[in-house]
């Protein structure tokens, strides 16, 4: 288990992770109008929040991990001081145009129905939830026994969990889309088709209805 400082160092030194993060941030920023607020759900050490704030978007941050949150307070201290980044104890403490959940935050849930129900009270009509989730079809994971042993379960049910300390779950997009309804509809999935075999992360954009 990484400390907040270790996580921050790891994710700001990996070129692959930086590229994925840059694509996610760019998509989020394109979805936001001028001055729109957003909630960074599972904000980690504030890497994304700092960027959103720099583009003029007041960013509410929710991070349940003490270690991550402590480093976020350090990394975003200037933005917090200027109220460009605002820490919230509960996601329901804000009203925003969009919610972002980057780098597999939603893979820590075993069921997303209650979460999307809560987020429907946070996101304004016409707003969005943008999530980066681990791609269950990524062939790069086929070298691992846990991937091969769960393939039939994935094809049959659209989901499975890995026995580990964090018990990370893998979901087919259709399963998350069903959990998001009726409050949100899946508007965009990236990548699609054969691209799902080559990318570790998939981006799911849900629109508030």
UniProtKB/TrEMBL annotation:
GO terms for biological process: methylation. Pfam families: Methyltransf_23. Keywords: Methyltransferase, Transferase. The keyword Methyltransferase applies. It comes from Dyella acidiphila. This is Methyltransferase domain-containing protein. The keyword Transferase applies. CDD domains: AdoMet_MTases.
